[in-house]
Amino acid sequence: MKTVIIGSNHAGIAAANTLLDNYPGTEVVLIDRNTNLSYLGCGTALWVGRQIDGYEDLFYTNEATFREKGAKIFMESSVTSIDFNEKIVHFENKAGEKSEESYDKLILATGSKPIIPNIPGKDLEGLHFLKLFQEGQEVDRDMSRDDVQTVAVIGAGYIGVEIAEAAKRRGKNVLLFDAMPTSLASYYDPEFTQHMDKNLEANGIELHFGELATEYKGDKRVEQLVTDKGTYDVDMVINAIGFTANSDLGKDHLETFRNGAYLVDNHQKTSDDSVYAVGDCATIYSNALEATTYIALATNAVRSGIIAGHNVGGTELDAIGVQGSNGISIFGYNMVSTGLSVAAAKKAEIDVDYTDYEDLQKPGFIKENAPVKIRIVYEKSSRRIVGAQLASTEDISANIHMFSLAVQEHVTIDKLKLLDIFFLPHFNQPYNYITMAALRAK
């Protein structure tokens, strides 16, 4: 059997590895428009902010590895069309040479594309997006210019907040804009985001929330950013307002979700029996919502690639759904979440309650210590846990994995009240904040 995979980042690579490592004799063809594969985009801000030595280790595999496994790879090649009836993929390389590959099974792993604000001045130099490795290189080069002193970041989600920190670490004046009233509003409730906002301000980032960009001004290169509330002199703009599914190749043939993502079943199969879709171009099932939705995360991409690979290879494997677990660390302040915030639950029309608690991570006699803030969100009727949020300068990241499992398995808030949680002063308190938060639930 011959499988063609379009796209070779996290989801495409996971699918290819699953097929090549588990199903001998399977013919695998990878087609990608980029110069490289397997780029860990989540490390871009660390590299641009000089928190790591370079970008080289942000690639976890290469073309040679796949060729050794027997895969055929076409890099810097753009797919121009797909004949779904004849099962043929048409593409051309950077020299304009046209080629085609037939397939028995097709896996679409085309990822997502940035949302581009359609406002005056959008073609000026000095305007950047941040997803691909090449875009990271452009941002890094531009930030190295002596005449770039003030950087505006539009969008205060994860990527925007991270690149704002990176620019500040490079000694720039940084202005962070978002239409929402706080940073990270898609992941956390205001009681949590207000602490991150204070952290950003304390580290010298100028916040402009509740503002919409309306125009870029300049002579060839951007010189000013205009919003609905003011005009700001800037030397560089980084757009990070979000992403949408890159589903252009199959949108006229395959069923799609409301945002354009390919609609897939729990085997990652699309409405065409020969076509699978994985990663950011496809839908996913949320255990918190108990519904199909769209969550663009690298971890979800890897899991979906593994599932598609096995199903294409002949082993039936069902997806178990996701919680959208995520985390961020900015200037030493750590936040993690999974499932739904109170605000997200309200938007989804799920009637929830929540329980909050705040305490030191360790007993008071431990010198290296800091407060931890926790919120557990649960559905009123069933009392099942649908989300959790934690924040601290301590490393509290591993806790979110338990809550992810709780959401997946429909664990109730009451089950946590007497959960066996160990105690040792080196790590935590005898009255653990998870236990205390659960006990405070109505």
Give an overview of the whole structure:
The protein has a five-stranded parallel beta sheet with strand order 3-2-1-7-18. The chain has 442 residues and is α/β, with parallel strands linked by helices. It has three domains: 2-113 and 244-313, FAD/NAD(P)-binding domain (3-Layer(bba) Sandwich), CATH 3.50.50; 116-241, 3-Layer(bba) Sandwich (FAD/NAD(P)-binding domain), CATH 3.50.50; 332-439, Enolase-like, domain 1 (2-Layer Sandwich), CATH 3.30.390. 22% of the residues lie in helices and 29% in strands. The chain is built from ten helices and 25 strands. It catalyses: 2 NADH + O2 + 2 H(+) = 2 NAD(+) + 2 H2O.
Could you provide a short overview of the structure?
The longest helix is centred in the last third of the chain and has 16 residues, at 298-313.
Which helices and strands appear, and what pairs or packs with what?
Elements: E1 2-6, H1 10-22, E2 27-31, H2 44-48, H3 63-68, E3 72-74, E4 77-83, E5 88-93, E6 98-102, E7 105-108, E8 112-114, E9 127-129, H4 133-143, E10 150-154, H5 158-169, E11 173-178, H6 190-202, E12 206-209, E13 213-219, E14 221-227, E15 231-233, E16 236-239, E17 243-245, E18 275-277, E19 284-286, E20 291-293, H7 298-313, E21 326-330, E22 333-339, H8 342-347, E23 352-360, E24 371-379, E25 385-392, H9 399-408, H10 433-439
Helix pairs in contact: 1-7
